[in-house]
Structures are given as structure tokens and as C-alpha cells.
Amino acid sequence: MINRVEKLSLLSEMIAFARLDESLKSIEYKFLLGVAEQLEISKEDFDYLIEHPVNYVHLKSYSERIVQFHRLVLLMNLGSEIKPKDLVRLHNFGLRMGLSHESINRVLDLMESFPNKIVPADFLIDIFKLQYN
Cβ(28)–Cβ(72) under 8 Å? Predict the structure, then answer.
């Protein structure tokens, strides 16, 4: 299980990702608040993070990094239109987390074939497992 500092870092990273266009839409806020609740982070701490981001902390667990990448994919798909710069940013987030370049590309390429462009968690995990072994 990840510690509080890692949890705050994950949320801060997701907030930064959502604010690519300088605003945080209501649907993005609600999604991120739901992630905060899953991570057992209070609404007050979450709201504080919006204005006061914390430094990035690299997750040690490969599986936690995959889960975080999946959250970012879900977050990106909340918007109405995915722009090429969003895909590049997601790709770079994945690389920074230490995920496989090939796996990230495969997820992004296959995203188009799923309803609402949302890759199911088990499918995404299989892609990363294949590259990890």
C-alpha cells in the first residue's frame, strides 16, 4: 500500500494533468474527489492540493504505477475532445512513472477501439504485464 505522501503526490499529478487547459471542469473535480476518497484523502486536503501542489514522488510499486496511469487515462477521457497534446502529455506522464514506452503506445492506440475510449482495467493490466515479462 502506498503512503500518504505518495497519495498526495498522485492526486497533485492528476490535478496538474486535468488543468492542462488552465481550468478544472466540474466533472474532473468530481472524478478527482472520488479518487481522493478512494485514497482516503479528505476533501479539505484535496481542495488544498488544488491550489498548493506537492512535489512528484516516484511510486515504487509497478502495479501502483499502472493503476495511476489508468486513472490518468480515465481522467483524460472525461473531456469532450482529446487533443494530440493531451495524448503527448499522457505519454510523458507514463514515461516519467517508468512505464514501458511500448505499453503506453499500445494503450493509446487501442483506446480508440473501446466505447468512450476507456480501456478496461483488466485489458490495460494485461498490456503492461506482457511488456513487463
Answer: no
